[in-house]
Amino acid sequence: MDRITKEQRSYVMSRIRGKNTKPEKEMFSALRQAGIKFEKHYKLLGNPDIVFPNEKLAVFVDGDFWHGLYFQQRRGSLPEYWVKKITRNIKRDRKYTKELEKSGWLVIRLWEAEVLKDTGKCIKKIQKKLRSLHKLIERTRSGSYVHHP
């Protein structure tokens, strides 16, 4: 059983940011400092937080609670409302990741805690993926890359 009314929950939920959260702002700032150009909140399935359209790379900065970090350990102590909501969020995240990948996008998902603990490590993860994508794009343009399924 939940301890708050529907009205209280509605108010609390209305106060939660969906965009420009602290971890997102940390990533935006670090990417700019590294001289990496990106798009914020690009219109794409799942509304990724950071996108590199030319490379078809989408980055999500997922909130730990909302997207289910340690969900299995916390599940037993959460009211049913949160269990259902977080379960739906996890399923939706997986679905969007699969659909984006099917349409040729690469997806990186970063946890809020991961970003706040070591933003530099998260930037390096993105840089590494961008380097490999740039090499692939160059090989494709030069005709030296042949895809064998």
**Elements, N to C (H/E):** HHEEEHHHEHH
The CATH topology: Endonuclease, Chain A
Overall strand count: 4
Radius of gyration over alpha carbons? Answer: 18 Å
Shape descriptor: elongated
Say which CATH homologous superfamily is assigned.
Answer: VSR Endonuclease
Provide the helix percentage. Answer: 55-70%
Widest sheet: strand ordering: 1-2-3-4
Structural class: alpha+beta
Descriptive key words:
149 residues; alpha+beta; Endonuclease, Chain A; 4-stranded mixed beta sheet; 7 helices; 55% helix; elongated
What's the gist of this structure?
By secondary structure, the chain is α+β, with helices and mostly antiparallel strands. It has helices spanning 6-14, 22-33, 64-67, 71-74, 80-102, 112-117, 119-142; strands spanning 39-40, 50-52, 57-62, 106-111. It is 55% helix and 11% strand.
Structure commentary:
With 149 residues, the chain is an alpha+beta fold. It has a single domain, classed as 3-Layer(aba) Sandwich (Endonuclease, Chain A). The protein contains seven helices and four strands; from the N terminus they run ααβββαααβαα. It has helices spanning 6-14, 22-33, 64-67, 71-74, 80-102, 112-117, 119-142, and strands at residues 39-40, 50-52, 57-62, 106-111. It has a four-stranded mixed beta sheet with strand order 1-2-3-4, with helices on both faces. Helix 2 (22-33) crosses helix 7 (119-142). The protein is elongated, with a radius of gyration of 18 Å. The mean pLDDT is 88.
